[in-house]
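agent: user wants the structure for Methyltransferase domain-containing protein from Yoonia rosea. delegating to structure tool.
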Amino acid sequence: MGYESIAEDYIAAEEALYVAASRARPAVANRRFPAEKREKWYRRVRAVATWLDTNGPEPDNVLAKIMTPYEIEIMDRLAARLPIKYQYRGLNGLREYARLWTMFPELLGDAPPQDVLELSCGACGIFDVLSRYGHNVKSYDYLDQDGKNPLGTSYAGIHKALGVECQHFDGRARPYGFAPESFDIVLVHQALDAYGAVGEWRQIVDDLLVIARRSVGLVLNPPARKDQENREQGAFFINEMKDIYGAIVSQCPETRLPTLVIHKNHN
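agent: tool returned. relaying tokens verbatim.
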């Protein structure tokens, strides 16, 4: 069975839950998760599956465990204010699966267990994938004490469903409180922009490299301030990482955002 077939089975299972919820609460459904909005995210699941059918490894039985809906009732997802784009486990997991295949493909095979620190866990797609391949994943997410939702409670239902003990930290407060070389790999996916301005990104990477024994993996969001100066600084940062650290630059298959892999012993 290919990725596209697995994706269609997942979409059918997910859609059945939404249809049942729509029948029970039609007014809520029309307002919060109309069919056209659901289809938008299903298209993205299909797109990643199509990419993997062309570029990925042969599907294995691990993927089947990820491509199932979260065991969270639809109305409970809404009550938790979980954004609809994160309600789809198949997309959250498949996105990270495709990223990891482009960045650290050995982790999706028979590599020895690695200690992985993820500092941007969100809906925990990284944990969902890597823990099933036997890796030890510690999940942290951004803590903003001044924010409206400082402890990330929107994701709490997902964390509970997946058995993730997500901890929180302030990504703006450096140096980070992790011992030097305490993890093999440190991952920050689409969060560096929340942890500092573009001009601070190199220092953040330097701090991450202290924590990592082996490698740092990044998926970059655009800078928080999307002006010409920040775009130029973002491009400079990527080139600087290539020049100084030999960063391997690629692209997320799902979002098309830049990805960087930095190995400590790159020479």
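agent: one observation worth passing along. The longest helix spans residues 3-24.
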